[in-house]
Task: structure prediction
Amino acid sequence: MKRVLAALLVLTAAALGQGVLKVGVVVSATGPAASLGIPERNTLLILEELLNRTRGVAGRKVQFTILDDASDTTQAVRNTRRLVEEGVVAVIGTTTTPASLAMIDVVAEAKVPMISLAASKDIIHPVDAKRFWVFKTPQTEELMARAIVADMVARGVKEVAYIGFNDAYGEGWARFFEAEAKAKGLQVVQSERYNRTDTSVTGQILRILAKRPDAVLIGASGTPAVLPQRTLKERGYQGLIYQTHGVANPDFLRVGGRDVEGTFLPAGPILVAEQLPSTFPSKRVALDYIQRYEARYGIGSYSTFGAHAWDAWLILRPALERALKKADPEKDLAAFRSALRDEIEVTKGLVATHGVFSFSREDHLGLRFEDAAVMVQVVSGGWKLIRTFR
Amino acid sequence: MDATLLFFLLLDALQNGVVYGLLAMALVLVFAVTRVILVPIGELMMFAPLSYVWLLEGQLPGTLYLTLALLGVWAFLERRLPRLGVRILGLGVGLFLLSFLAKGFALLAYLASLALVLALGVSTYRLFFEPMREGTVLSYLIMAVGLHVAFQGLGLVFFGPEQYRPDPLLKGEVVVGLSRQALLVYGFALLVVVGLYSFFRTLYGKALLACAQNRVGARLLGIRPEEGGRVAVGLASGVAGVAGLLLAPLTNAAYFMGFMLGLKGFVAAILGGACQLPHGLLWSLLGLLV
Result:
């Protein structure tokens, strides 16, 4: 049925004398990263509907081909190859860092621009011959670590301990946080790891407590981030507790309950969009996104992760319009893809939900720290903005 | 390492050890009577608290529909014994009603989720293990692993990837590091050991032991080994369900967490000799402390 509909769509568009712009999407709609991938997919579904109800991009219909990678690297690569062969003009995705890294080879070989929705800085840095084709929208750990350390310094923290996942997420945070902390004169007195599936972290927490740090950072995401924090509280820890932006979803608050009250975390500004000062650049765009998302999926259903996909489209759309003036995807797809990449790279001052994007030849993240990170505290079971860095 | 540190680590080990020990006893019980190594017991253990969270919020969990479907098939298989079939269907209806009423009532939700896991365990045994009556230990094991994979996948579909944490029955701590909820877990473990010990002194328990030792001999004396198997699996699912419900407030519950617990319980069961009940518990404690 879907295929028939898609075919009909193509036929009508062809009858109008204009081609369809095919955009490929890979997200993790199932598997461990599903809580991030599902809002991303939902966002793109809203977009597709919105675009085709209006006039599309420069009079052309836009068709998103959304494929699920099941949080699996091999599947993500296979999906990307399929999309490239189907003749998409660009690829958006995917949700997780390892899979995004693996997709770089495919898009670079086929010379297709890609906008990743995963966190790690390694996806876009350094911009070499392959990463030439790759951009991304979410904030890096490095950027968020800067926000945490700045907040710790402002609160007079001297000694700090770290406990994080025993995987790419936790290790990435350990690397960037410890480097940033040292640079700002903080002392990292203990660094511990645990598994996502652990049911007890008592040993690690006791070693941290023995060092009596002023603050503890937990480098974990989602509900498994609650366990170290609860253990800290149970053992009577009185210092400050920081989490990463990987916990910025309602499930964390639900499972954490009273134990996570008072936690500090860095987040994309959209998490607390209503509380932002009206001068904050991304406030209006963020509220617009939230309103559209909630209109379709219910009040309180939006998350910061879906907004990354929205941002990817906000970047892609003007670039598509400009590229359409330079090349025609019907006649020369390769030239169009290349023109599109060039146009993404010259994007300047584009206000999106998570900040302001200004790409350059060396910077394919394009976010400025001041616009893209805020500090948030968990107060009576909700998120409260405590400071911006502007 | 100072004394407080040692104390906390010992308490932590004790809590984990008791849970592994409970699972070990359940596994030994089932294995002794039926020769089935009940690998999916970890999933049953997680289904109990997850269903509880769902029921308390007034949502009907996927496990309920799964159980009702299995009970339905069971009733169909027993169509030559209409009385048993009707009883099974009655059980299904009762379970559904109980689940329906459980919204907001912690006690009802506890009972409903426990009954759900019990019915799920027994009907799984009836539908998947009883038809392979003369199977070898290996073929039973293959079936059990298959069921484990299926239940884990279904768990993800039913409850999503995130963890859940039901409220503890008893709040607060006795001393620092030892919560009242943990005391409940210990108390339950003790109860299970004593309960099983005295159960095997009764006629019914002895019939179960007879099935374990010699199925043909037991049958000659008028004991139905199938029924013995159902009782054993029922007891095991009950133990796992209660353990899961008591443990979840301490460690959270998620669909993927059952397997590790079940595996460690299995190790404890092997250490205990896979045949004698209290030994499984003792060995798991000893192993954890070492």
